[in-house]
Recover the amino acids of this structure.
């Protein structure tokens, strides 16, 4: 009737320290973290919370007449993920019943209470799928793809895509697989077949993730739907590889960011995982300290700081030939306006290695504007008009929380 019987072999319960003393003097032992961990084996445990105060006496036969008490334990853990692409955090409530006859806690079952999947690394990424069956191809393209045609499906997630909303009541959920729905998640897709290329907008309305890191997506068009496993059925490619494969004209003035070398930038201006308060506009307006190793071929570096919680609000833009900037080196609000967000916002800082000074251009500080990709495209043209000026970049991302709600101060 019940699942695994655990913790057997406990000696007489009257000799053990316990949390609950029943009317007949029975002492009930606590459930140990080690026992709970054994039930979520093969997963990286984030934390286990055991609410001993929730041990309650049983007097009826709700779970079985042999049980004298029960407890509900909240467990959060991080399953294996898609090579770092889709980190997950799962929280569930586990029910245990205490068998007073043999001094053992029995695991009765569990209920999913929350699931979080960090899909922030998917927007803007490009993929190729070569394992679609002829049935799947027809489901997505209908007669647009001739029968027997061979090729590959290239697709790109839009830079703005809907979040995964997990349905905790989905009847298909299992302890190792969780289903989600999504609104506004679309793919730009191209079938590159022997008979030519066919472009198609594909929508995603549902899917699931597993402990093993599988990410299942249900692709839909006006013709039908096909289910793929992003982990096993597709391979990520660069934006440049995607454009070349689908026959797009490659603009050499454009920066393909995912093809650039990445270097390490360090800072002492982050404390407890957040940008220092002193970096804020009303807390000193001190630009962050930054250090990085010289990049071969770089004569200049652009420093760009964006509030990506908003529409890419620009806090800092400066061109320098240094590889170290002191904290507070820039206070002039013509180049640095420190954060002053409502509540907590995420600020992404980029150091961009340039062959030379960019063309005579300026970005508007303390104002909204294009994202980092658009800014790099501008920087990619040097002062002499040549392209290919951007050669590498480094990035630091952290939140900033204003000590007071200064939003609207300016």
């Amino acid at each position: 009737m019940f699942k695994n019987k655990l913790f057997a072999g406990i000696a007489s319960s009257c000799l053990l320290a316990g949390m609950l003393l029943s009317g007949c003097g029975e002492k009930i032992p606590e459930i140990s973290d080690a026992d709970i961990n054994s039930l979520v084996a093969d997963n990286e445990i984030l934390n286990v919370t055991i609410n001993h105060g929730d041990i309650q006496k049983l007097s009826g036969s709700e779970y079985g007449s042999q049980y004298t008490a029960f407890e509900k334990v909240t467990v959060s853990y991080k399953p294996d993920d898609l090579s770092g692409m889709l980190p997950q955090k799962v929280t569930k409530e586990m029910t245990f019943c205490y068998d007073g006859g043999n001094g053992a806690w029995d695991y009765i079952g569990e209920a999913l209470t929350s699931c979080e999947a960090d899909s922030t690394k998917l927007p803007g990424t490009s993929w190729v799928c070569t394992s679609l069956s002829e049935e799947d191809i027809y489901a997505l393209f209908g007669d647009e793809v001739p029968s027997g045609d061979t090729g590959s499906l290239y697709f790109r997630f839009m830079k703005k895509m809907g979040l995964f909303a997990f349905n905790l009541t989905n009847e298909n959920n299992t302890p190792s697989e969780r289903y989600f729905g999504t609104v506004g998640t679309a793919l730009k897709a191209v079938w590159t077949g022997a008979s030519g290329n066919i472009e198609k907008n594909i929508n995603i309305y549902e899917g699931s993730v597993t402990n093993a890191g599988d990410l299942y997506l249900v692709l839909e068009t006006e013709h039908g739907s096909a289910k793929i496993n992003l982990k096993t059925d597709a391979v990520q490619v660069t934006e440049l590889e995607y454009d070349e494969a689908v026959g797009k004209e490659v603009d050499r003035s454009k920066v393909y960011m995912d093809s650039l070398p990445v270097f390490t930038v360090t800072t002492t201006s982050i404390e407890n995982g957040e940008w220092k308060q002193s970096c804020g506009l009303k807390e000193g307006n001190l630009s962050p300290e930054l250090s990085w190793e010289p990049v071969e071929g770089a004569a200049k570096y652009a420093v760009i700081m964006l509030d990506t919680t908003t529409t890419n609000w620009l806090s800092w833009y400066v061109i320098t030939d240094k590889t170290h900037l002191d904290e507070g080196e820039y206070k002039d609000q013509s180049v640095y306006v420190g954060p002053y967000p409502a509540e907590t916002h995420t600020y992404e800082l980029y150091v961009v290695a340039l062959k030379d000074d960019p063309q005579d251009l300026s970005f508007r500080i303390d104002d909204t504007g294009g994202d980092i990709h658009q800014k790099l495209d501008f920087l990619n043209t040097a002062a002499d008009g040549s392209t290919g000026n951007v050669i590498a970049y480094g990035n630091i991302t952290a939140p900033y929380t204003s000590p007071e709600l200064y939003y609207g101060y300016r």
Observations:
- The chain has three domains: 13-117, 126-250, 258-401.
- Residues 380 and 386 are 8 Å apart (CA to CA).
- Confidence is low (pLDDT under 50) at residues 7-24.
